[in-house]
Amino acid sequence: MPEYPYRSAVSLKLNAGMNTNGSIKRKSVSLGKIAWGATFAGVMDVIGALLPCLEYPLFLIERTQVTRLEN
Question: Which of 1, 6, 21, 61 lies 20 to 30 angstroms, CA to CA, from 69?
Answer without folding.
Answer: 61
